[in-house]
TrEMBL record:
The keyword Signal applies. Residues 1-19 form the signal peptide. This is Outer membrane protein beta-barrel family protein. Keywords: Signal. The keyword Signal applies. SUPFAM superfamilies: Porins. Residues 308-661 form the Outer membrane protein beta-barrel domain. InterPro entries: OMP_b-brl_3.
């Protein structure tokens, strides 16, 4: 079997941003009152605190829209939240929100900005977080005893077809119990198009057009709450239940080639978590908890070629996950000491079937992974301008997996232990620059959805399969970041051992999309961001640029590699106050053409415009136009010898529509006069 490969690199580009407050003066009876509306960032213990009370943030229609103007954050509709280009987890009052990107976006779009007190951004998480956590955003709510909130929001838009997302939410804060619950329904039909080309060795060029119609429907229920069970103890709980289904019909064809595919998918997702936090005293805190997940899915796949059925497949998936943990923190003369232990058990069950006219070929895949992790972290505060953090984390994995397909059967067992570390030093230079340098070793494990080795019919002219024999990626990196006033700078140099990436495998004349470990990858990054306000704060600007260069070193594939070129990302966010409570938001992003060694990525750009109007204190309306130029495309070509695969794909992204949001808050009852000293902040579920 001859193998040729291409892969897509995970873009690690990062931008770092900080704001500076501008002031305007009002004279009243010879007394000068200074009001500050621009977001201010204060660095405390290596983290960046953003106070939003009385700022522009609280004048936006929702927390989601407000976060778009906060430095450091990259917020884009339909995409995960990022910090310095890295996907971030979100915490509310110190508790991680166990949601996917779509649920988080829906949740933040229902939150009233006036319910937020401050936002803390951690660009270098310590050893208490799992190694897969790249950045942390903690949103702290202003919880007033005896208050309630409820709201309704609806999004109606046109892509190729009409789509809708509608949600309702309700929250109540009592003396002992506080909770927030929501329901969201989504209906999204899309029409995707692509131009696909391939040349295999000496065979002639095949060029086909691809298009599909996909209809996605979802129902999501969410609840989060806290319960005071004493003066020193509190329980946090959260749960999510989601139902979804999609129907997809695709076709790839030219004058002599016609390949079709139909996929019907259904999924059920349930998760529940509970955390107990106990404060022994002001200096000692214990936290214990657990997290349970059950994810079920079923896909029926039908493939045709020139009008004849060629493939019929069925894939049933069940993934139960159980996590338990304990964490302890102690404040002492040196600083703060934290230690903890965590155990998670994950089972992946894939019941795969190839269905023929007179028979069914079963191909079951089973994967079990147990990870035992422990950590200790110590912070030192030398002065107001200097601090140091040192952390160690040990992770031991026990893995068993098996796969059977016809007479082919194999099973394997792998056990390994990794010692991870982080060293972070913060200081303020004589020129008032806030500096940080961090050394960190991380592990990136493969996505469990990509381990199933069963070969499935792909969307266009390709097939798809996973690879269970994948080693985790070890990432060694040193990063430096600095900021002063309106400017910030970011840089990183890193090395990846056993870098994991998707790639294409040529097998028996078929193109198969799968996964592979590459021996070594070297990466260098640098970025900057600028924030300012102009025209008496009528125009607020955030602009960033980042450059990245990667080099792959793999003995088996070095002869195939072409010369890499740097990649660049430029982003700008503009908020323009045009009066009468109207605000115009213009976002633009461009990624020029670049090569990563195996793939040439052509220029991609995106222009989004929104116009929001605050009708009254409870009602907001926003008109949007996303990807106006219809240039947010994926255009890639392989650069390996003796093999060519190219795709110019445009997902159904461009859309126009309107968002209506109604939200009301008030008192549910008159609270008593007795002062409470309860700590209502809970740390994240790890």
């Amino acid at each position: 079997m001859k193998r040729n490969i291409i892969f897509t690199l995970l873009i690690l580009t990062g931008t770092l941003a900080f704001g500076q407050s501008n002031q305007k003066e009002k004279t009243i009876e010879e007394v000068v009152i200074k009001t500050e509306k621009t977001t201010k960032i204060v660095k405390k213990e290596g983290k960046y605190e953003v106070s939003v009370v009385g700022k522009d943030f609280q004048d936006t229609p929702s927390v989601w829209e407000g976060m778009k103007q906060i430095p450091l954050l990259s917020i884009s509709d339909g995409s995960p939240i990022k910090v310095q280009g890295k996907v971030a987890i979100l915490e509310v009052n110190g508790i991680q929100m166990q949601m996917d990107a779509a649920d988080l976006e829906s949740y933040l779009k229902t939150l009233d900005p006036k319910s937020i007190r401050k936002i803390t951004i951690d660009t270098t998480p310590d050893s208490s977080y799992g190694s897969e956590v790249y950045a942390v955003i903690n949103v702290q709510l202003t919880q007033r005893e005896g208050s309630y909130q409820m709201g309704i929001n609806t999004t109606n838009g046109i892509k190729t077809k009409f789509y809708n997302s509608t949600g309702v939410n309700y929250g109540l804060s009592g003396t002992k119990l506080r909770f927030y619950t929501s329901y969201n329904f989504g209906y999204t039909p899309t029409n995707n198009k692509a131009e696909v080309q391939q040349i295999i060795e000496e065979n002639p060029l095949i060029s086909v057009g691809y298009k599909d119609n996909n209809t996605f429907r979802s129902h999501r229920f969410f609840i989060n709450g806290t319960l005071n069970i004493g003066e020193k103890s509190i329980i946090d709980f959260s749960g999510t239940y989601a139902l979804s289904n999609s129907d997809k019909v695709g076709i790839s064809k030219n004058e002599t080639f016609n390949k079709g595919i139909e996929i019907d998918s259904k999924s059920n997702f349930f998760q529940f978590s509970e955390t107990l936090k106990h404060n022994f005293n002001d200096d000692n805190t214990l936290k214990i908890g657990s997290h349970q997940v059950i994810n079920k899915g079923k896909s029926d796949i039908l493939g045709t070629f020139n009008g004849l059925q060629t493939d019929q497949q069925q894939v049933d998936t069940k993934t139960p996950i159980i996590i338990v943990f304990a964490d302890y923190k102690n404040k002492n003369k040196l600083g703060e000491t934290s230690a903890g232990i965590k155990l998670h058990n994950i089972n992946v069950e894939n019941n795969n079937k190839d269905i023929f006219t007179n028979s069914i070929l079963d191909a079951p895949f089973r994967y079990n992974e147990k990870v035992l992790a422990s950590y200790i972290s110590q912070s030192f505060s030398f002065s107001n301008n200097r601090s140091l953090r040192i952390g160690l984390r040990s992770e031991t994995s026990y893995i068993n997996y098996s796969f059977r397909e016809g007479i082919k059967e194999y099973q394997n067992k792998k056990d390994y232990t990794n010692l991870l570390y982080d060293v972070s030093y913060n200081w303020t230079s004589s020129g008032k620059w806030e500096n940080n340098i961090t050394f960190r070793k991380q592990i990136f494990r493969p996505n469990y959805n990509y381990l199933n080795p069963f070969k499935r019919v792909g969307s266009d002219i390709t097939y798809e399969s996973g690879d269970s024999d994948i080693n985790p990626t070890k990432f060694f990196a040193v990063s430096y970041q600095t900021m002063k006033n309106k400017w910030s700078l970011f840089s990183l140099a890193g090395y990846m051992k056993d870098f994991t990436s998707s790639f294409y495998d040529l097998e028996n004349g078929r193109i198969n999309s799968t996964y592979k470990n590459f021996e070594n990858l070297y990466v260098v990054q640098a970025g900057t961001e600028y924030n300012n306000a102009f025209l008496n704060r009528k125009w607020i600007l955030k602009a960033s640029a980042a450059v990245q260069y990667v080099k792959i070193d793999d003995k088996e594939y070095n002869r195939m590699l072409s010369k890499s070129t740097p990649s660049l990302i430029f982003e700008t966010n503009n908020i323009i106050n045009i009066g009468r409570d109207f605000k115009l938001n213009v976002n633009y992003e461009v990624n020029p053409t670049n090569k990563d060694g195996l793939i040439k990525h052509y220029t991609n750009q995106k222009l989004d415009i929104t116009l929001s109007k605050k009708i009254n204190s409870n009602l907001n309306i926003m008109f949007f136009a996303y990807d106006i130029l219809k240039t947010n495309r994926t255009w890639e070509e392989t650069t390996v010898p003796n093999y060519f695969y190219g795709t110019k794909r445009y997902a159904d992204v461009r859309s126009f529509g309107v968002i209506l949001k109604w939200n009301v808050t008030g008192k549910s009852y008159k609270p008593g006069n007795q002062e409470k000293t309860n700590d209502d902040t809970i740390d994240r579920l790890k």
